[in-house]
Amino acid sequence: MARAENTELIDAFEDLYRDYYRNEIGELAQRYPNEQKSLYLDWQDIYRFDPDLADDVKSHPEELRDYAEEALRLYDLPVDVKLGQAHVRVHNLPDSTDIRDIRADHRGQLISVQGIVRKATDVKPKITQAAFECQRCGTLTRIPQQSGEFQEPHECQGCERQGPFRVNFDQ
């Protein structure tokens, strides 16, 4: 991430709100919590304000959402309303990803997907390469996986023994 200080990120969102979202925050304060609970940020506005911040929003969405919501709670409102449970949502990302192209490397990132949800099921990951750790010496061996049967290494590249191996899901 481009910035290290939490307060710096919160300050950046407060400045963004003052420059781009003053009216929207005023409307949110008037409608909160019965009619409206979220402030919608246009990613293009964030990018115009600070390209590094916009990139951070895409690559670390959960962490940056927390900073954005904290900045919203700290925002000085003209009315006596606390936006303690208000949410910040980002829309209008520059690129759209086809549903069939979503992969494990998208995990933890903010992506845009277009479509109509007809049914939601659990994610079934497709392993294209598995990392096996030798239980004897700790050597990591990567084996490409084909659809269907799970392929383990024949022998360890470190100690040249035939296992035992354990799948290392962190690799």
Mean pLDDT level: 90
Uncertain segments are none
Number of domains: 2
Q: What fraction, in percent, of the residue positions are helical?
A: 25-40%
Tally the helices.
5
Overall spatial form: elongated
Q: What is the spatial order of strands in the main beta sheet?
A: 4-3-5
Biggest sheet statistics: 3 strands, antiparallel
The CATH architecture assignment of the largest domain turns out to be 2-Layer Sandwich
- Cα separation of the termini: 21 Å
In short:
This protein is α+β, with helices and mostly antiparallel strands and 171 residues long.
Describe, in plain words, how this protein is organized in 3D.
There is one protein chain. With 171 residues, this protein is α+β, with helices and mostly antiparallel strands. It folds into 2 domains: 101 residues, mini-chromosome maintenance (MCM) complex, chain A, domain 1 (2-Layer Sandwich); 39 residues. It is built from 5 helices and 5 strands, in the order ααβαααββββ. A 3-stranded antiparallel sheet has the order 4-3-5, with no helix packed on it. β3 and β4 form a beta hairpin. α1 crosses α5 and α4 packs across α5. It is elongated and about 70 Å long. The mean pLDDT is 90.
Keyphrases for this structure?
single chain, 171 residues, alpha+beta, mini-chromosome maintenance (MCM) complex, chain A, domain 1, three-stranded antiparallel beta sheet, two-stranded parallel sheet, 5 helices, 5 strands, elongated
Topology:
Elements lengths: L5 H15 L1 H10 L6 E5 H7 L1 H9 L1 H14 L12 E5 L37 E6 L5 E5 L20 E3 L4
Parallel strand pairs: 1-2
Antiparallel strand pairs: 3-4, 3-5
Helix pairs in contact: 1-5, 3-4, 4-5
